[in-house]
Amino acid sequence: MGRYLGPKCRLCRREGIKLMLKGARCETAKCPMERQWRNFPPGVHGWRRGRRSEYSDRLREKQKVKRYYGVFEKQFRRYFQEADRLKGNTGEVLLTLLEHRLDNVVCKVGFAPSRAAARQTVSQGHIYLNGRPARVPGRAVKVGDRITVKPGEKSQKLIRAHLEEYGEPHVQDWLRLDMTNLTADVVGEPTREDVMIPVEEQLIVELCSQ
Length: 210
Description:
- The mean pLDDT is 86.
- This protein has two domains: 8-42 and 53-98, Orthogonal Bundle (Ribosomal Protein S4 Delta 41, Chain A, domain 1); 101-186, RNA-binding S4 domain (Structural Genomics Hypothetical 15.5 Kd Protein In mrcA-pckA Intergenic Region, Chain A).
- Helices cover 40% and strands 8% of the residues.
- Helix 3 crosses helix 4 (90-99), helix 4 (90-99) packs across helix 8 (201-208) and helix 5 crosses helix 6.
- The chain has eight helices and five strands, in the order H-H-H-H-H-H-E-E-E-H-E-E-H.
């Protein structure tokens, strides 16, 4: 599977917001978005780019969501096609489908400091879903699922180190975390309010529907 190997902070600068691609580091003064001289798009001419077109505005919203959840174009198109088939507002359904990703849940319950780290944690076999190994970061979770840590010393030590370093996370209402036993339960469905970045999903729908 392909992956982005360039500097992550460059992606945040391009979108003009913090995508939290480095976890807690993004909340410190080390984040380039906190530095006035780097708080503009990358490239030698980033500081003097002209007005954006309507197409550019729609594209930036789509790229923002793709980079936040760590999915590529082909994956994103599949999510959009599924959201378009389901009932409800297509944009909101699209975002909730992305929220259901296993790597997103692993990140939100604090088992990994960022979504990129969560994808690596899952693919390396440290996470179990309903008592069985789950190595696919994009696997969708559903209500009633239980996410646990592999019952091995290396996996347990790794996850506990993350929780001790970054502290107990603020877990959203649709998830429940047991820090003692290192288990997390999906107790509800994510809503539009659970998406942690500002995004105008209608612009994405307009772009992908063309």
